[in-house]
């Protein structure tokens, strides 16, 4: 994890104490991730991270809260943009990363309300015979009015 901030290094050192204290830890200048100083907003502009609806006291758009997740192939796998006044859901980030890893490694899909350890979905493109080999714990089908049997669930591999 790397953070990009439009604040200076000096500001990072000051507010990192607040972050640690807010989380119930010792108010130190150390955070468990590096922070990139982007006080001129060069990267924020290039990455489309400005929120045109929210402006600072000088009328300059402030940065939105953006999360980018890249895979081992160096390709963007996920982008979440939160408007500047909206807090990020940090529980969602590891959930999505675990989901992306499962999808890449195990040929499954995760449903909308999936949590780590819940059942996953067998991809509809995997034939039944192959699914039995890939998922020895079996799969159950959620019956739906349309009659297609494409919602197949299996324990998380």
Automatic annotation (TrEMBL):
InterPro entries, per database record: AhpC/TSA (IPR000866), Peroxiredoxin_AhpC-typ (IPR024706), Peroxiredoxin_C (IPR019479), Thioredoxin-like_sf (IPR036249)
Domain Alkyl hydroperoxide reductase subunit C/ Thiol specific antioxidant: 2-77
All copies of domain Peroxiredoxin C-terminal, residue ranges: 100-137
Oxidoreductase found in the keyword field: yes
Keywords: Antioxidant, Oxidoreductase, Peroxidase
Segments forming a coiled coil: none
Superkingdom as given in the UniProt entry: Eukaryota
Keyword Oxidoreductase among record annotations: yes
PANTHER family, A to Z: MCG48959-RELATED (PTHR43503), PEROXIREDOXIN-6 (PTHR43503:SF4)
Name used for this protein in its record: Peroxiredoxin 6
């Amino acid at each position: 994890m790397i953070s990009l901030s439009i604040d200076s290094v000096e500001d990072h050192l000051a507010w990192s104490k607040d972050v640690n204290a807010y989380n119930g830890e010792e108010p130190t200048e150390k955070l468990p991730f590096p922070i990139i100083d982007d006080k001129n907003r060069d990267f924020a502009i290039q990455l489309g991270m400005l929120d045109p609806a929210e402006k600072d006291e000088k009328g300059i758009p402030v940065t939105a809260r953006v999360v980018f997740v890249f895979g081992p192939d160096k390709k963007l796998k996920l982008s979440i943009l939160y408007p500047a006044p909206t807090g990020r859901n940090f529980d969602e980030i590891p959930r999505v990363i675990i989901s992306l890893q499962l999808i890449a490694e195990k040929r499954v899909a995760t449903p909308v309300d999936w949590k780590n350890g819940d059942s996953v979905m067998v991809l509809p493109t995997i034939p039944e015979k192959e699914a039995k080999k890939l998922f020895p714990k079996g799969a159950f089908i959620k019956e739906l009015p349309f009659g297609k049997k494409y919602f197949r669930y299996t324990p998380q591999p």
